[in-house]
Amino acid sequence: MSETSSQTRRAPEAATPRIEVADRDRSTDVTTTVRQSTVPSAITEAVFEAKDVSVFYGGTPAVRNIDLKVPKGEITALIGPSGCGKSTMLRTFNRMNDLIPGCTLEGSITYHGEDIYADDIDPAEVRRRIGMVFQKPNPFGISIYDNVAFGPRLHGMKANLDDRVEQALRGAALWDEVKDKLGQPGVALSGGQQQRLCIARAIALEPDVILMDEPASALDPIATLAIEDLMRQLRGQYSIVVVTHNMQQAARVSDRTAFFSVDMEQGVRVGELVEYDLTEKVFTAASDPRTEAYITGRFG
Amino acid sequence: MSQTSSEAPGALRVTGKARFGDAFFRIIAYSAGLSVLVVLGLMIGTTTRDALPVFEYQGLWSFFTSDEWRAGFSRTEFTGEYGAFSFIYGTLVTSLLAVVIAVPFAIAISLYINRIAPKRLAKPLAYTVELLAAVPSVVFGLWGLLYFGPTYVRPVMELLNSTLAPIPLVGILFEGPIFTTSYFTAGVVLAIMILPIITAITREVTAQVAEDQVQAAYGMGATDWEVMRKVILRGAFPGIVGGTMLGLGRALGETIAVAMLVGGSQRWGLSLFFGGDSMAGHIANTFQDAAPETVLALIAIGVGLFVITVIVNVAARALVWRIGRVAGDAAL
Questions:
Q1: What is the mean pLDDT of chain B?
Q2: B234 touches chain A (CB under 8 A)
Q3: What residues 194-213 of chain B have any CB closer than 8 A to a CB of chain A?
Q4: What is the mean pLDDT of chain A?
Q5: Main-chain dihedrals φ then ψ at residue A57, nearest 5 degrees
Q6: Cα B91 → chain centroid
Q7: Would you kindly state where each structural domain of chain A is located, as residue ranges?
Q8: Rounded CA gap, A136 and B41, in Å?
Q9: Which residue of A241, B29, B57, B122 is 20 to 30 Å from A97, comparing CA positions?
Q10: Is B219's CB within 8 Å of A132's CB?
């Protein structure tokens, strides 16, 4: 996080050449880092509600006592220093942590009011409804079309598959670039295109939430801005939870920001939720000194 | 610095002594590489030279397609009948059967070791499978002949015979009478023998399927089984084909165990339960008592086996190459 040291309030674009493509959809001044709040501060409809959630890896706590409500149709950013458990927290929402041997969870997480950790819940079904985009673009070694059609085929949604693939690719702002080469391998695309392909692959299953785990951290600045533009387009139709190391990114795209920090607990580093509020508020008037210290670059 | 410039180029010249090690090593490596070609060339040359008269006497086509094998006893001329089809058929049937049995097991074992087994069980299990490769084939042969064949394979053959024989077309493969030493018995034991090599390669290539793709599939709601089938096996498919072909190559050439288990009748039959013979098995079983003309005929079988093995290997490479292209590994 050293690159964020003292220039937190300046957008990174200021340091890089201005990018026409990325600026296209940006009506406001690019140097404005913090997104103006367009949502009420009270959450009226929650997609996820985590209550007193603690996650353990082989008995060692990774995050402790998290209460977090994720609002519908908004972009929620999880930020914080390395090891603060923000990715762990993200993965509790679609039970991806179940795949890690020795990972256990206490507390409860509800998805539209239903406890997804209840005994009779099928984790695969949870993951089907909740899309996920990973840090490194990870398309399969098959064609672009087959990548997007993978999920629908998996779940027997084979009616109008062509339309579904087209809609998903349009939704991920990739259609115009790939419509003439759908049969080509997905891995032959550029990194940014691959990541949008992965987003298309996720939305082809019509989830109502998309979890993004540092979706732009492996991408160059142009591709990063394209992903951010896309996130803003998807906002509303989808609820998005995004983990990011990049505070400018959180400030630019998210409606709400949850700041996680690391606490030492009997010699073990444990993540905790320090502050959760409208992004504008977290970035301009943090209520916890640790948040402000992190955002202004004094630690992390 | 100008006064030293006249000396500097001299220091750059090769002194000869310092380069000796490089030159020496190069010669060693070069001749080691070359020796493989020389040995192979000698083998092909001498066996083909000995086999040619047999092909001329019998006719090349007849040698490969006739099933009439009658050993002659002359020292000076050819008097017998040398149609090797029965042995060729036996070799192909036992090898294919071995592959058909071994591949599903190898895939299942690989997935179990890589993805399902607890860590403390995975390693010992992997070693155990590899240990199978260390058992001498004559031991497999004895074990199959005295114990495994009569006790376990025979009941399976009887079961298959009673259930599958009435089915039209396919049924012909399972018709009686049942021989305890048969294509089927040899194929089953061969399957055990080629299991380690296929498992080792399948395990390697399935482990190499990128974990992030596995995660992606889970993230879309795939179950364990769907992830294995649609991501891991699909991604590892070219490698699995390659491993299968290596196993097939080993099965084609396996001699002693097959010679002990395949029946040794010098005839062939469509039924898997027929006691036939294989190319390598027939050579091993008869060469000690063979008259000079028959020895040449046996060498001709060896040449035929070599040709078949080469064809299988070339076909395997072509297949892997094609699959690789279809799978679209453009970025790899």
A1: 88
A2: yes
A3: 210, 212-213
A4: 83
A5: -105, 110
A6: 11
A7: 3-39+72-92+120-258+275-295
A8: 50
A9: B122
A10: yes
Residue A211 and residue A93: Cα distance in Å, rounded?
8
**Confidence at residue A191, expressed as pLDDT on a 0 to 100 scale:** 87
| Optimal mutation site among B220, B326, B332, interface A, most CBs of chain A within 10 A | B220
> For chain B, which residues make up each domain, given as ranges?
16-70, 84-327
A198 and chain B in contact, CB less than 8 A:
yes
Question: What is the model's pLDDT at position B192?
Answer: 95
A131 and B212 within 8 Å at the Cβ level: the answer is no
With contact defined as beta carbons under 8 Å apart, do B103 and B239 qualify? Answer: no
Q: Which CATH superfamily is domain B84-327 in?
A: MetI-like (1.10.3720.10)
Check if the beta carbon of residue A178 is closer than 8 Å to that of residue A189: yes
First CA to last CA distance, chain B: 51
CA distance B226 to chain A (A): 8
3-state secondary structure of B114: helix
Q: What is the pLDDT of residues A195-219, one digit of tens each?
A: 999 999 998 988 989 999 988 888 8
Is 60 exceeded by the pLDDT of residue B124?
yes
CA B167, CA B160: separation in Å to the nearest integer? 11
What is the token pair recorded at A33? 């880092």
A127 touches chain B (CB under 8 A): yes
- DSSP, residue by residue, A238-271: BEEEEE-S-HHHHHHH-SEEEEEEEEEETTEEEE
pLDDT, tens digit, 9 for 90 and up, residues B204-233:
888 888 888 899 999 998 988 899 988 898
Intervals of chain A under pLDDT 70: 1-37, 298-300
Residue type at B258? Answer: V
Each residue of A113-160: pLDDT tens digit? Answer: 889 998 888 988 899 999 999 988 899 888 899 999 999 998 888 888
**pLDDT, position A25:** 42
pLDDT (0 to 100) of residue A1:
39
Superfamily of domain A3-39+72-92+120-258+275-295: P-loop containing nucleotide triphosphate hydrolases (3.40.50.300)
Phi/psi at A219 (nearest 5 deg)?
A: -110, 160
pLDDT for res B2: 47
DSSP symbol at B228: I
B242-252 burial string, b = 16+ CB within 10 Å, else e?
bbbbbbbbbbb
The verdict on a CB contact (< 8 Å) between A154 and B210 is no
